[in-house]
Predict the structure.
Amino acid sequence: MSDTPRTVLGDSPSFPPSDAFRARANVADPGVYAEAAADPVGFWEGWARRLDWAEPWHTALEWEPPFAKWFVGGRLNACFNCVDRHVEAGLGDKVALIGEGEPGDVRRFTYAQVRDEVSRIGNALKALGVGKGDRVCVYMPMVPELPMVMLACARIGAAHSVVFGGFSAESLHERINDAGAKVLVTADGGWRRGGVVELKRIADEALALGCPTVERVLVYERVGSALGAPGPQSTAGTPEYDQGVWVEGRDVRWADLVPSQSVDCPCEPMDSEALLFILYTSGSTGKPKGIVHTTGGYLTQTYATTQWVFDLKPDDVYWCTADCGWVTGHSYVVYGPMANGVTQVVYEGSPDTPDKDRFWRTVEKHGVTILYTAPTAIRTFMKWGDEYTERCDLSSLRLLGSVGEPINPEAWLWYHRVIGGERCPVVDTWWQTETGAIMVTPLPGITATKPGSATQPFPGIRTAVFDETGRDVTPIHGAMGFVACAAGGEAPATGPAVTGILAVTQPWPSMLRGIWGDPARYRQVYWSRLPGAYFPGDGTRVDEDGYFWLLGRIDDVMLVSGHNISTMEVESALVDHPAVAEAAVIGRAHEIKGQAIAAFVILRAGFAPGPETEAAIKAHVAHKIGAIARPDDLVVCAELPKTRSGKIMRRLLRDVAEGRALGDTTTLADPGVVATLKDKYESAEG
Ligand code: ATP
Ligand code: MG
């Protein structure tokens, strides 16, 4: 097969951990992989024992496929583990949350203060009728009160369902009703790009569409002048905004209820398998699913992965830029980091307010040591140019993380060089709402990273690559050989590289327990495609060293003249061209080839569109991968259609390229973007 496309993935050298990093790393012995593989359940029990349980479990794992129960019979409280136990251990004065508001206001909360505030919120929720097992919908800006409301729910045994503050009234309405929420916690508004997101007004609209289960609405005053009473963070120059309509008897001011509550609010000991939260997936592929997570297993895996993947130390200042409206904000702002007693930054607003250096100013201001963000943000920073990073002192950083989409090698290398000063390990972490916690990732003190590869399953996790017929074709399991070799050990084991479907072949503690209210869909979506294994929906390559390269969604794979070509590979080749900042490719129907590649690209600052640039970019792809991957169409655009969490929605680009009416756009951040693209594409065609 002489014309088999080669790959741009794996072109760059690998990056072994530095001796200095390894010497201080939380885990530096590659032996942990073999140990965990020999007894995965025992490995996870070891982590669970490091949490605080009101009652121990009698059975670590009950596995009746596809239903798993972890730490059965055990009782614990997630909030106690994230807050109270640190206070009891003498860390009450340690700063837990540094709330950086978009207008520049900073509020710090120590663990003792968090315990008191969370207790007050817990009592306030009880006063509004919330009890064990009830669902509370949370629609708030990314201020410290958001994680505290989540923890307050956990404290009293209620489940939260957080809806990202950028969602529309219809989306909020749908999620409130699906979860059957009894109380809605919202805010007057939140700051975004110097303006106000009118959360209360949108919440009112959502409720007006009919939410029969909602009894009370608790309204936090963030923007300050809402409801006629200036709040504590009132900022000079607040613009006019719509505060919604106050409904007496339904709506309750935070200031009228929370501060007067007692700080005595016992942590309810919860069953290990008690519902902790429902969270809707980000909706890249279609209708969002209400993913169900429970307490003991979820907390165990988020706790373990935070400690090892981010190499968390007591004096770190950690910053995960995700909003609590996404699973990353649940697992790597609230539960994992706080179970570890971290000090962290919680930032409310956008990365370009007041200027495009806001992230780097924030790193400098708070001395951030660990930064966890998304490829979409990284590619945006690349597009803006290095002047914004160069003017800030980023020397406090010691580790960088990425999550949410495949990270193109070019973006990885930029992140490593420009943000990390070539001294910070980069951990590219693959996981999803459904997995609850990180699944495939480097361990920064052990793994030699390869730009663009999420590398290896975390110890105690088993992933594999399956072919179309549902056969496990994983060439070798584990890259311990490679890892050990990088550390000066024996020669690595190798096997032939394979491309196929990613699978998880044994249950893991933080796995989803179902889709809320739809057990049939749970089986059908995740457990019917691969025999005996979990189907995440993503494609992967496993290279000679056993490293996993996540290639994007199976549904997005293109079939060009009989060759499977992944979007990730072509996009990485495009972004590899100096003129290209960001790219999305899709396969559109083609009479002869089956599918032809259509590429949508955003140019970097300083490059102009035109036939020459476009031809050069196409030629670059052909040069990097092979003529077969040369895009037939190339459209230069200003924006790509993305979900509100920043992921490219290729499904809509296929609609554009095939001249169809646009499919569901409700999870899109800016519906105007696809309409503009459609016009542009059609005029280029004509
Ligand atoms: P929906 O399931 O509703 O379409 P979604 O899959 O975007 O939405 P999430 O659970 O937020 O919702 O995202 C998980 C997905 O993101 C993964 O299945 C994968 O496709 C992608 N992803 C996350 N991290 C990585 C990574 N490090 N490398 C490659 N892909 C990643
Ligand atoms: Mg998904």
Q: What stands out?
A: The chain has three domains: 4-77+273-553, 79-268, 558-685. The CA atoms of residues 37 and 484 lie 16 Å apart. The pocket of adenosine-5'-triphosphate (ligand 1) is lined by residues 281-285, 288, 326-327, 403-406, 428-430, 432-433, 454, 536-538, 550, 553, 645, 647 (CB under 6 Å). The longest strand covers residues 580-590.
